[in-house]
């Protein structure tokens, strides 16, 4: 295709609205344009990339035995009321009324719709398992849409929902989907990691997130440097190894006027923060709970909710904390409690000897406390975020590292949450009604485009993976107006490469070579071929891979070899 | 693909909700399922058909030089306020508010969004002409969604918008689109007609609708039996030939007590309704107007609006009619008017001699009036709907026929309506600001699926055109559980046909042959091959084309010939 036949509105300046590199480069390269907050139009070049993502996702879903359907964007409220999410979902669910004042929403996800379909159409275990997927426009009314495609309001998802007669069948499909995702993201040319994730309030047993690794990623993901253990921060754990035994010192109350933080406490007492047991007051359900953590550890609210067996745990307000403990904020501690508040410790907090903690009196802390000797051990659980360097929970030798990731996929065992609420039953082999078991599997199709850019760029622009590039090869015809033989040779090369199966963009614009090169670098095609009167005289082409810094003169056979060498996997 | 791998929930009974054949058969064949009023899920089989329509439409749009983009479904109200359509569009425009209480709508069409894009990105005549298209989900809040996909609320459109520096350029692209639509609907295997259409209130110069011919069509389309003239009923015209001269008779007032209708008037007076000049009172803008038509002709409100140079004409209420004429309803006439009301006649009304009309007095009509002798000729225009048998306006010999059509495409010269309202200008060749000229071009992609069924079915089910069928061939394995050699032979044939490039559905279900045949007929695959122990013994296949009534025994080479003979055009 000639550049004059495709609308590529590149920008010289970086748009002020764009923070993330992917947002900047996709705007600058003319891949997308903003219509309104969180709403983007896919321009011709961007749509070519999006379609490539869609095709790979579709091929791998089909290969896995999933069946493609297409559900409506607009969904009736009744189904969401049945599942209980109409009230629960919050303002990200865009609610609307039709002309008859009936309630609907724009689908951010399709569990309700597919569940309704399943209960109408599936009646026997013989129809199971079945896995339906769609690639479809979704809407989520983000409070602050930002980062371009990364967190837009309207976006494109591949969502799949599987139905099973029992959990064993779900496990098989779950693994099939996990494998399909591995193949999908590999074919997309992305450096990614599958990590264990928490199933949260929705229940279900297992879940994995797929993250594209990028420094700009919003999520912290944890992995072992020795084995294949990987989890997101919500889920990652590390064994609490007992600290080396330390001779118990004499416990004492000390004056610590004005102390409010662990850091201040450590500094005033001349100890490490790891020698402090800090208290964190939370509210679980309706009940206040005192959590104990080592001073240098960070509370993980998700783990606390699991340990306390509630849907959600939140931090207590200062007033709630003082009222629940009868002690002044900054000086609350587990020894000599004035109230009957529930206490739960992180495992690691119980491994600290000679520790300091609040004395439940203004301006007073304990030092050199020891569990059992000075106060009894409370129940304990895993409550902390892991840290880089922590030991791996799976292998005995590795240590954990932390990297940044962009979540692009999620496989999730829903279990019977929806099928119970929406009453999806089938006759099982013995002729009895059985509630079905479900899984769901998402890929952020439009987000993949942004994530790929976050992982593949340099100061000159995007560097598309071979499987995603809008064109495989860019041909730059230099001074084609002045040299008709250059224009003719470039067009002939374009035609031969297209004939050989490559998508080719021929820059036939009447622009300075510098502008032409800058455009090719910005839009990120993997291969560039320059046609000029100079190289024509030598009967060669001037080739440069997008990642290379130098040009190479090649004959056409060599050029073909280089193009073929980086063809995407199928 | 084996039938056990694809979910095809066929129904024996015709769903009560479905009136149209396409709605019935698409539900019964398991192609679609209803989620809510006017909202349908595309099941695996239906989606295969939809994708085929999409692919053909996309290929022909690309071939025509149009560039594919993808715009958001959710559109900001500001743009619709700018174009003036926020107020004007009526309740079919589904309006909604986001979490910040900002107004949006679900796009029923995208003139505003593409106009906004164009004015931001296009600045010079050198960037023109350009034609952007998308294949996208749209929403129209129909008051009574019905007929399944034919008039749903959520539907899939191909919409294209072209931009030009002048009208001459628009004419070229308009013709290119017209030709692309001819190719598209031909490739889709549909019997269709392109007809001239009215541009309506929106202005612009030319417009054509593309109709699939089907007895169930909502629209009347008019065509000549001799030349290629064709138009929709709103637009179609016919020359008003002068009636043979008749000797003028003596005019008289006659008593016609209780007469209200043309038919009653003709009966009481013993004349033909073609000898009556009837009055129709309408309101054009704010003004009442008296229209005159031959008694047997039907008013065309669109033509009246054009003739009166207003956006819209409506019928006057009885009160408005009597107050505007000072005469009693049923007895209003153009002679001896009591008020200064504007009068406009259809051309044909002026060709009637010795006519009867109301006398502007209760229970009184004139008979034997003649223009010029008894009252002066008013202005005249084309105001009537044509009728079958009318002479063709283009050729001298043909007569017009009327058929029913389903509108599936529309090409439309928008002119400068949107570009003026939304201020889309470019620098022209002489460096001056020029308002761009626009065209728009739609295809009802999901409606095509229903229209194809309306045109291709019999009492047993759908008969898909080769280009739209979800599978090219259906193989029915008879008693495959009992005869493993049948199962094996059917599977091997399936594999060979797939290898040869056909999409094959193998019915490997454990069902009676009658059920298997009924399913194949219902879902409408063009070719059926039966594999049974009997035919295996003869070393042949039992073949039947969907439209045929008899089976034929064929060897495999003959089978291939038959399959290849009906492959779709590319």
Automatic annotation (TrEMBL), chains A, B:
Keyword Cytoplasm: yes
PROSITE patterns: AA_TRNA_LIGASE_II
Record's keyword annotation contains Ligase: yes
Database matches in InterPro entries: aa-tRNA-synt_IIb, aa-tRNA-synth_II, aa-tRNA-synth_II/BPL/LPL, Anticodon-bd, Anticodon-bd_dom_sf, Pro-tRNA-ligase_IIa, Pro-tRNA-synth_IIa_bac-type, Pro-tRNA-Synthase_IIa_type1
EC number, as in UniProt: 6.1.1.15
Keywords (A to Z) from UniProt: Aminoacyl-tRNA synthetase, ATP-binding, Cytoplasm, Ligase, Nucleotide-binding, Protein biosynthesis
Gene Ontology molecular function, alphabetical: aminoacyl-tRNA deacylase activity; ATP binding; proline-tRNA ligase activity
Comment field on protein domains: Consists of three domains: the N-terminal catalytic domain, the editing domain and the C-terminal anticodon-binding domain.
Similarity field: Belongs to the class-II aminoacyl-tRNA synthetase family. ProS type 1 subfamily.
Protein name per UniProt: Proline--tRNA ligase
């Amino acid at each position: 295709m000639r550049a004059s036949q495709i609308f590529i509105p590149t920008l010289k300046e970086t748009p002020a609205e764009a923070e993330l590199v992917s947002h900047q480069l996709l705007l600058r390269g003319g891949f997308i344009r903003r219509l309104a907050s969180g709403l983007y139009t896919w321009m011709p070049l961007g749509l070519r990339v999006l379609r490539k993502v869609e095709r790979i996702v579709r091929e791998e879903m089909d290969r896995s035995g999933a069946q493609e359907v297409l559900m409506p964007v607009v969904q009736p409220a009744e189904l969401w009321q049945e599942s209980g999410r109409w009230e629960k979902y919050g303002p990200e669910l865009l609610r609307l009324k039709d002309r008859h004042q009936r309630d609907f929403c724009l689908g951010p996800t399709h569990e309700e719709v597919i569940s309704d379909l399943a209960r109408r159409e599936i009646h026997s275990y013989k129809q199971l398992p079945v896995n339906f997927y769609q690639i479809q426009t979704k809407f989520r009314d983000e409070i602050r849409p930002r980062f371009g495609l990364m967190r837009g309001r309207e976006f494109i998802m591949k969502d799949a929902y599987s139905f099973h007669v029992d959990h064993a069948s779900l496990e098989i499909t779950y693994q099939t989907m996990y494998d399909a995702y591995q193949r999908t993201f590999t074919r997309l040319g992305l450096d990614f990691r599958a990590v264990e994730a928490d199933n949260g309030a929705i229940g279900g047993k297992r879940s994995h997130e797929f993250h594209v690794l990028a420094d700009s990623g919003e999520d912290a993901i944890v992995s072992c440097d020795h084995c294949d253990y990987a989890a997101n921060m919500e889920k990652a754990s590390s064994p609490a190894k007992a600290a080396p035994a330390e001779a118990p010192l004499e416990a004492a109350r000390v004056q610590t006027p004005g102390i409010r933080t662990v850091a201040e406490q450590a500094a005033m007492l001349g100890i490490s923060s790891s020698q402090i047991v800090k208290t964190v007051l939370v509210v679980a359900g309706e009940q206040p709970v005192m959590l104990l953590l080592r001073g240098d550890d960070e509370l993980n609210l998700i783990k606390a909710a699991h340990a306390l067996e509630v849907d959600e745990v939140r931090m207590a307000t200062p007033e709630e904390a003082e009222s629940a403990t009868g002690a002044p904020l900054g000086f609350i501690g587990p020894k000599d409690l004035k109230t009957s508040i529930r206490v739960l410790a992180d495992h690691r907090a119980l491994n600290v000897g000679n520790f300091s903690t609040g004395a439940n009196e203004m301006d007073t802390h304990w030092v050199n406390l020891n569990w059992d000797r000075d106060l009894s051990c409370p129940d304990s659980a895993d409550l902390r975020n892991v840290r880089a360097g922590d030991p791996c929970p799976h292998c005995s030798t590795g240590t954990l590292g932390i990297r940044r990731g962009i979540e692009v996929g999620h496989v999730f065992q829903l279990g019977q949450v929806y099928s119970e609420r929406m009453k999806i039953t089938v006759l099982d082999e013995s002729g009895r009604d059985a509630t079905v078991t479900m899984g769901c599997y998402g890929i952020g199709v439009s987000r993949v485009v942004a994530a790929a850019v976050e992982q593949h760029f340099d100061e000159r622009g995007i560097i598309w993976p071979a499987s995603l590039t809008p064109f495989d090869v860019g041909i730059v015809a230099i001074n084609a107006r002045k040299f008709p033989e250059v224009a003719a040779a470039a067009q002939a090369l374009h035609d031969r490469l297209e004939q050989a199966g490559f998508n080719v963009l021929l820059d036939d614009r009447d622009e300075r070579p510098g502008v032409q090169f800058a455009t090719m670098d910005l839009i990120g095609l993997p291969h560039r071929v320059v046609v000029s009167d100079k190289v024509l005289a030598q009967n060669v082409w001037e080739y440069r891979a997008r990642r290379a810094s130098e040009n190479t003169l090649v004959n056409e056979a060599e050029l073909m070899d280089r193009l073929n060498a980086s063809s995407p996997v199928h």
